[in-house]
Write a structure and sequence with these properties.
With about 675 residues, the chain is α+β, with helices and mostly antiparallel strands. It contains 26 helices and 23 strands.
């Protein structure tokens, strides 16, 4: 994917990892430096040093290839500047020969030892080794914990010859750009680079109880791994580094078992037999068992499935009972009341999902778990479905409703054969932000007005519900995905690897939905979704309307504006000279053929006067009333006066008096002479 220079995201660059080399392999991946770039320079976030490629201000950048762990500038003269983070604490690159790359520190001088530039710090040494070849300079930049000699040896080892660096850059750029081909063209590649970098950062080599690579969880008090983070990160890694998945799964299979034969929630590097921790949530099969990389190895899949089944069996309850959380605080329904007082159906809902996953992977386990699954499903729908709320609600041991919807009520949406009508009602939670939806994803529980703080949105829970994007209707999927994209944007540096994993796992759905569009009201989304049809229709209307009106008015027999003015003047002249019949005919033609709707009330009024003079009082009354109907602003006060006179001529005294009183109320103050005459008329009409 080629970006122009404006697309070079500073957010991405602030997460370019560059950690110090160390003899301690376990510490070598703990990045002490995060760097950012401006025109190809690197600056340590922690520390006062930077690497400047020395390109000069007159070099014109033409295009840029943005990769995770590296980038490539192409200049207008055809030369390139490549920079690649090859390993922790080691960067290699190629730059035009006219450049003058250098190290710089504000608080210390750069030392030179032959072709090596060195910056010494309290614990680390930063070094830059250059090798000019033809019209290019190849360089190796590194950080080494320890002595200068150790750093120099490491840098020279990676800069044996220019041909080696050229080949290495070519191969690594090709390998690391493969994930770009899997992304939709419109996807935000710079954020994807941050996310991939963040996930690669948490990978650790074998150590302690971990017989292979494992995933570090920096939120733990002791250095180690959590199963929850593994369940989030491994599916994301499978999208761009599927080769890592079998090794990570094998590490999980070989971990020590808990007292019930399953997995612990947390494993420490320093303790290979720690069984004091709570068991991991029973969601491991749901997250990992369907991964393509796992299915490719039958033996590994069988071993992993056996561990999943053993882990699941440790949670299964006695007959006619519900499972009990080993640690109530980990339930999905916290802070309603004391968790130990809740029956907590949410664990049962998770177990149904886990059993279905195992059954789909191994037909034999379908028989093993069928009765348990049916029992738990029956208990959940019959004991915890609130017909009044149309939701699944937890209960206390006193059989009282907990009163608050928890995220566990949505778990049946993931079941294979749920109750369709109840599932339809549960889906409403995903459309109503006041229930479980938040702008950042799915809440842990329903918010109440008296909550001191909003309910949390836990990343682990979001990963649990990711399969909904494939099962929900398109509109619901888009709304939910939009929430998750906003959660990702809330952490643009991906400080939480779970957020990075969520972003990566949303990539396969990027071509199906437009999460940015879901920020707007439904009517805006509807217009956008049907934009092409609406624009085409509108364009056709805009083209056809003028032509249609032109043809219509060209063929209509009515007056144009000039003809109407002439006919109106002709009718008024005939009325003035007393030619009432021809004047009436002229006003009739104006009423029938006028294009000016605002003048028709005048034509009716004038024709009514002619009828009045001719003694045709019913026709006069009809025309006066029609003129008043076409005069919403009541300008024709004479028409209202004449209505009363026409009623009087017809002997309709009561109607005449009412019409005259209405006239006096409306116009009496501004027309005092007519007010006096009106009162006299009423006195004459009434004996």
């Amino acid at each position: 994917m080629i970006f122009d220079t404006q697309s070079y995201s500073p957010n991405w660059i602030e997460n370019f990892p560059f950690g110090p080399l160390s003899d301690d392999r376990a510490e070598s991946l703990r990045h002490r430096f995060l760097t950012h770039s401006s025109h190809g320079s690197l600056k340590a976030r922690e520390g006062s040093w930077r690497f400047d490629p020395g390109l000069g201000v007159d070099i014109e950048e033409e295009s840029m290839l943005l990769l995770h762990q590296g980038f490539e500038f192409t200049f207008s003269n055809g030369q390139t500047y490549k920079l690649l983070h090859l390993a922790p604490g080691l960067v290699i690159g190629k730059i035009p020969a006219r450049a003058r790359p250098e190290l710089f520190a504000a608080d210390r001088a750069v030392e030179h030892e032959g072709d090596l530039q060195i910056l010494r710090f309290d614990q680390d040494v930063v070094g830059l080794l250059q090798q000019p070849v033809g019209d290019s300079i190849f360089f190796v930049l590194g950080i080494q914990s320890g002595t200068t000699d150790a750093l120099a040896a490491r840098l020279k080892e990676n800069a044996v010859q220019a041909e080696h660096l050229e080949t290495l850059l070519t191969l690594e750029f090709k390998k690391r750009s493969q994930w770009l081909d899997r992304l939709p063209a419109e996807f935000h590649h710079s954020l994807t680079g941050i996310a991939i970098e963040r996930l690669l950062d948490v990978l650790e080599p074998a150590r302690g109880p971990f017989t292979g690579p494992w995933i570090r969880d920096d939120t733990l008090e002791a250095r180690g791994m959590s199963m929850e983070l593994c369940c989030a990160v491994i599916p994301a890694l499978s999208l761009f580094r599927p080769d890592l998945v079998p090794e990570l799964i094998q590490t999980l299979v070989s971990l020590p078992t808990s007292g019930t034969g399953g997995w612990n929630a947390v494993y420490s590097v320093d303790s290979s037999s720690d069984t004091s921790t709570a068991p991991a949530l029973p969601t491991i099969a749901h997250h990992l068992l369907r991964l393509p990389a796992l299915k490719a190895s039958t033996d590994l899949q069988r071993s992993f499935l056996d561990r999943c089944r053993a882990h699941l069996e440790g949670f299964l309850p006695e007959k006619d009972a519900l499972p009990v959380w080993p640690d109530p605080d980990r339930a999905f329904t916290p802070e309603i009341t004391d968790p130990t007082e809740l029956i907590q159906f949410d664990l049962a809902a998770l177990l149904v999902l886990e059993m279905e996953t195992c059954a789909s992977a191994d037909p034999g386990s379908n028989v093993l778990f069928r009765s348990e699954r049916d029992q738990l499903t029956h208990r959940i729908w019959n004991d915890f479905w609130s017909e009044k709320r149309k939701r699944l609600l937890d209960k206390t041991v006193q059989e009282e409703w907990a009163g608050r919807v928890s995220v566990a009520s949505l778990i049946p949406l993931l079941w294979k054969n749920p109750d369709k009508e109840k599932i339809r009602q549960l889906r409403q939670c995903l459309h109503a932000p006041e229930d479980l939806r938040d702008f950042n994803g799915i809440r842990q529980w329903q918010q109440k007005k008296d909550d001191p703080i909003p309910p949390p949105v836990r990343m682990g829970t979001q990963h649990l519900f990711l399969p909904l994007l494939s099962t929900l209707p398109a509109e619901s999927s888009a709304v939910l995905s939009a929430d998750w994209h906003r959660a990702v944007e809330g952490d643009p540096s991906f400080s939480d690897p779970s957020t990075a994993a969520l972003f990566i796992r949303l990539i396969p759905y990027a071509h199906k939905i437009n999460p940015n569009l879901e920020r707007y009201p439904a009517w805006v989304r509807t217009l956008e979704k049907h934009r092409s049809v609406l624009l085409g229709t509108a364009a056709a209307i805009l083209l056809l309307l003028p032509a249609g009106f032109g043809i219509y008015f060209a063929t209509r027999p009515d007056f144009n504006h000039a003809e109407e003015r002439l006919e109106s003047g002709f009718a008024e002249t005939l009325y003035t000279i007393g030619n009432l019949e021809e004047s009436k005919a002229a006003y009739t033609r104006l009423i029938e053929l006028s294009r000016a709707e605002s003048r028709r009330n005048q034509y009716y009024f004038q024709r009514g006067n002619i009828h009045y003079h001719n003694g045709d009082y019913p026709a006069a009354l009809d025309d006066y009333i029609r003129a008043i109907e076409l005069d919403p602003d009541a300008y024709l006060y004479k028409a209202r006066w004449n209505v009363a006179q026409a009623h009087a001529k017809l002997g309709q005294i009561q109607e005449a008096v009412e019409a005259m009183n209405e006239f006096i109320r409306e116009y009496g103050e501004e027309l005092p002479a007519y007010r006096a005459r009106g009162k006299n008329a009423i006195a004459l009409w009434q004996p």
